[in-house]
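Example: TCAF2 factor.
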Amino acid sequence: NLNLDAEFLLSGVSELDLVTGGTPSILLVHGELSFPLCLDSSHRCLLAAARYGRGRVVVATHESQLFSPKLARFLLNAVHWLDAGRKGLVGVDASLKKLCSLLCREEVKAQVSQLTGDISVYCCSSYSDREAEGLHSFVAEGGGLLVGGQAWYWASQNHGKAAVAKYPGNKILNRFGLSILGRSVPAAKHPAVRSGEHYHFRKALALFSRHVDEREELRSPLKDWLQRLSQDCAAFLHIPALDCPAYASLHRILTKVLQRSGIPPVSRHCPVKSNSKEAVLLCMATELSLTMTDSAALVQKSAAEVCALPITVEIDGTNPGEERQTAWRSTGLYLPEGHTAVITFPCLAVGSGLKVQIGCHTDDLSHAAELKRAPVVIRTCDIACQKQTISCLWGGLIYIIVPARSVLGKVPISVEGAVRAPFFKLGETCESQWKACIRHYPAPWAELAVENLILTVPSDSIRHMENPRPLLTLWNEIMVAISKLAAIPTKFPRPERIVTDVQISCG
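Written out as structure tokens, the predicted fold is:
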């Protein structure tokens, strides 16, 4: 009974003072046998526990919480619960010597030790996955594990990597139904979780699924949990579900919810409030699609007509920019929503740092109070093989991202599954072809380019334009004037871009 477990762990504890000298992270509690012990007013979890096999686990969100005198009562409860009545030896990793001293003062048999077969409870930080397999076996066979650590610093140093999947501690904890997220919260005092109605990811998801099925009025507690549920869904879906039935089953639940409800419309004329059922569905759809090689199953629209034959284009694989100054190379192609493109690269492109990006609207609107489009509408992937498959729920223009200091030169690529997009470059595109056919290409987004600038605009705004040359000549003069004013070379290392968006994150 998890309620009895929580009562034992919090016996004599009415408040948990987490002001212990460090900034904590947030926990995602996603296992059926995992449960929160400390929640803030936004339902973010800061302490949690779980059962796994014959063993038990308690997780803190900063290692300083594991030896704070303020939390002595809780820590003693935790060690006794993890020990499960064996009165065995508590092994403490050398990085947590202060915890060993605290336990010894309370007459608990504890010593600084590595993970060995003669200990009942093991205490360590979450900063290494060196003993992951050993810890999994230790807990499964009945051992108790007390872990503490934050993941926000790791996340700040590993941009583009999901802490929930890649952070060392989570390679240990995910299996127990607990994960440390790469976000921080201010350290503060919080009331201990008591029996009764409180947030749990699985409970909230079950209520949400029922709400969608029965189309009932949104009410508490689900109404108060929506924002947390949306954020937890986004985090959870970054955990690889391959070969893990528990994760895969949740993926199936989310897919069924979306298929039954449909993806809600969102636009300038049909905005979506952030704390709403529709916002949760948009987040679910986006994140779930990123786990799929083909997101067509989530799109309930008629299939767009894509080109029957592969289209070959050539992109500039050279980028003299400084570190982190990537360059977007337009392909003049568009991937319709829910479709899958197969892009073939030459051998030299594989492992060279090139990426494929679908979509140009990179602003993340996850924290907006109102949405006029889905919060995240692009998808990026590394080029790991010659035939790269990529799908995007929302569709978008296809780009090749070239890393700084790349010297690949001209790179031919072949794309299947896309449609042509209107594209005009001053001095290169034939004006008669533009007038006759290019401006009528079916993609909903178009690009107009000069040497140092590319404008990305809705295709409807340029289809009437018989000759873009006067407009682009003006823009070219503007960019030359900018270079003179800035006293920099007339040719920029990469073109600047102006992308029109129905909603931006700032300004």
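The mean pLDDT is 93.
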